[in-house]
Amino acid sequence: MSIAKKDKRAWVWVPILYFTQGIPYILIVTVSVIMYKRLGVGNAEIGLYTSWLYLPWVLKPIWSPFVDLNGTKRKWFLAMQLLVSLAFLGIGLSLPTNAFFVVSLAFFWMAAFASATNDIASDGYYMIGLTQKKQSFFIGMRSTFYRLAMVTGQGLLVIFAGFLENQYGDNTKAWSLTMICAAVLMLVLTISNFFAAPKFETAPNQNSDKPNNFWEVFASFFRKKQIGIALLFILTYRLGESQLVKMASPFLLDEKEVGGLAYSTEAVGTIYGTVGVIMLSLGGIIGGILISRDGLKKWMLPMLLSLNLPNILYAMLAITKTSSLVAVVGTVVVEQFGYGFGFAAFLIYLIYIAEGASKTSHYAIATGFMALGMMLPGMLSGYIQEWLGYDGFFVWVVIAALPAFLLLKFLKYPADYGKKSAITHE
Predict the structure, then answer these.
(1) Which of 396, 377, 387, 382 is nearest to 308 (CA)?
(2) Which of these, 348, 337, 342, lies nearest to 281 by C-alpha position?
(3) Cα–Cα distances in Å, from 41 out to 37, 104, 164, 275?
(4) pLDDT for 84-139, tens place per residue?
(5) What is the pLDDT of residue 75?
(6) Is the pLDDT at 72 greater than 80, yes or no?
(7) How far apart are CA 281 and CA 339, in angstroms?
(8) C-alpha to C-alpha distance for 158 and 269, rounded to whole angstroms
(9) CA dihedral over 131, 136, 137, 143, signed as positive or negative
(10) What are the phi and psi torsion angles at 211 (to 5°)?
């Protein structure tokens, strides 16, 4: 594809595409827990079965070569978004039935695999449709709209469900209507992507330099230079944050007798849903702009620091047990900005790792390792917190960042990767 065809209407399709990517993820992974709790399912069943719904995002590299070798990315993500919409409709219609738990879980599994496949195709489309400089420039916007989708799902749709619960006095009817509305939202977004996303891809068999079988696509990723160090870095980049993100809200909500700050649910939702979202978005946008201006090398260390240093503030809150609103809001503001800013470098590095003929599949493999790096520490975070208490836990979270800093000096990548001067080969 010529440079002239790249970057076409990116200001339109990037926000819509990544908002669409975020909606099913948050509904499947997080909102499902709230829904089942309100429908009377036990905590043990909720924890066990909803945790397994995360698995498709870990395993998506296995079928990513199939997406890479068949059809266009645009056709794939449109088909998967439509399938997600149908799955949400199935959930909504199944909730009033006696077998709602089994049937709705089956539809959630369908939505999870479709959503993970949509991620593969959407990310591949992003890398094909943008020059390297624009990939860096739009990384902040991409992350921002993904996060806004998560706020929409975890915030607005849950608030809507709560309103319906009060309106009808029937949780089943309320959540059934909420999931049907989620299906309609996904359908509207699918139609929006159909009109917003340009048709600029070539058929896979026209790319003579692309591997032409599944195992070659998969194996070629592990033949990349320095792949061992790269995978260790991907697994540890968010080692601290992956644990903090699971325990931050419980820390604010828990009673002071057990080391928490005793904030209300409404207060926590307001803090993260207002100033938290603003600072997260701002950090991501600024991070993307700076990398596109200066290249990845200059900002990798500062962004890794920005992702991890704010964790110290949580440790200070836990140790001092201060519940000051100014201190808590200040901590969330710094942490969310640092997360948005620091994550920009990580995403650009994943794009660099995926460079080559099978970049869609290779990016899916890289993000699969990223998901594994979030899932495994997250699964253990609750046990570690119960063992160490909140003060010891957040000190551990700070220490957990060290492996990524140690690995950083061994990484090799072009200093100007992501910068305008680095796109002459495209």
Answers:
(1) 396
(2) 337
(3) 5, 12, 19, 33
(4) 999 999 999 999 999 999 999 999 999 999 999 999 899 888 888 887 677 777 87
(5) 94
(6) yes
(7) 10
(8) 11
(9) positive
(10) -55, 145
The pTM of this model reads 0.71
Residue position matching structure tokens 């339109």 = 12
pLDDT tens for residues 182-221?
999 999 999 999 999 888 776 554 444 455 566 777 788 8
Burial classification of residue 149, based on how many CB atoms lie within 10 Å of its CB (0-12 exposed, 13-18 middle, 19 or more buried)? buried
CA geometry: angle 360, 74, 187, nearest 5 deg: 125
